[in-house]
Amino acid sequence: MKGIMNLTCVPVKLAALALAATVLTAASACSAENKGPQVTSTVSSKPNSSESGTGKPAESTTPEPGAADGSPSATTGSDSTASSSSDPASSDAASATPGAAATALSWKTYTDPAKTVSFDLPKDWIAQSAPPEAGSLAGATKVEVKDGTGKYVATLQTGLPPSPPADCPNGEGRPYVVISSVPLDVPHSDGPDTIDPRVVFRVIQGYKFFGSYGITNMVAGADGRSCELRNRVLGPAGKGDVSFGDIPVLHAFAADEKVAPAKSFDTLDLAAKYAVHGSEFANVQRMLLSLKVNQ
User: Which pLDDT score, from 0 to 100, does residue 271 have?
Assistant: First the structure.
């Protein structure tokens, strides 16, 4: 079964993550019966059986897509403007998932001028259109998102031309873990190495633990190891791919490489806490889950 996780021997509780490197070493030694990317729930660290969501975690505080339905309503902007409406009561309901970090109280909706994409973002965040990447399909869109302080958050790109993943020779893949994985409803294509689209936060091991958030429907690797983790959804034929995340591709950085805007953590436990307790990721996840693509 494609997309099935093999992270079946991750410790039951985050408290058991005394040494993050030990956890990842153990993860890579799990049974090969379940191939493909891995998922652990964001609080209990009990494994999902699949990044594609075919298995239900025993305990998970990652909100399902419907959990944001009670969030502040937002009216669709037009001509690349963003409008917002605030409802503190409904916002409290949206952030009331046990253990989940609270999101911003006031939100707005960005819509591109051609009305091909829209997504919600905190009221004080900024969404700016930018020239599409070279080689993009006609009608492609690129939008850069920054927070209220001007700090870069994510980039949305549509109409991306097909781009095969990099070769990953045997023995060169690095251990990785999917810390958060939630279903996303966007147009996509299916294939032998795809899963249903997800909003994910994943960590790959190098000299530190490097993390990245984004959307994907691509199987990252087998046996809990990969050379790169791609924040990319393969689009329907002729429509191009879609990317929405902090970076297009996550890999294990070398010591002399710039890591930002990807994240780095000294331990896997700290990476998991960022996804569970951090308001930054809570806001980002809600934004990514709100993505609508009209193709």
Answer: 97
DSSP code of 274? H
d(CA 263, CA 231): 14
Widest pairwise Cα distance in the chain: 53
Q: Is residue 113 part of a domain?
A: no
Domain containing 192: what range?
127-295
Reading the block at residue 2, the tokens are: 């494609």
**What is the tally of structural domains in the chain?**
1
Q: Which residues contact 203 (CB under 8 A, 6 or more apart)?
A: 176, 177, 179, 209, 210, 211, 265, 268, 271
User: pLDDT at residue 65 above 80?
Assistant: no
Q: What angle do CA 266, 146, 156 make, to 5 degrees?
A: 90
Partners of residue 128 on adjacent β-strands? 144
Query: Helix or strand or coil: residue 61?
Result: coil
Instruction: Name, in order, each residue with C-beta under 8 angstroms of 294's C-beta and a sequence gap of 6 or more.
Output: 115, 116, 117
Task: Indicate the pTM of the whole model.
Answer: 0.70
How far apart (Å, rounded) are the C-alpha atoms in residues 24 and 20? 6
Report how far apart, in Å, the C-alpha atoms of 41 and of each of 71, 99, 220, 288 are: 23, 12, 18, 18
Length of the chain: 295
pLDDT tens digits along 121-147:
999 999 999 999 889 999 999 999 999
DSSP single-letter state for residue 263: E
- How do strand 117-122 and strand 106-111 relate by DSSP bridges? antiparallel
- Asked if residue 7 is part of any domain, the answer here is no
- CA–CA dist 260, 118 (Å, integer): 26
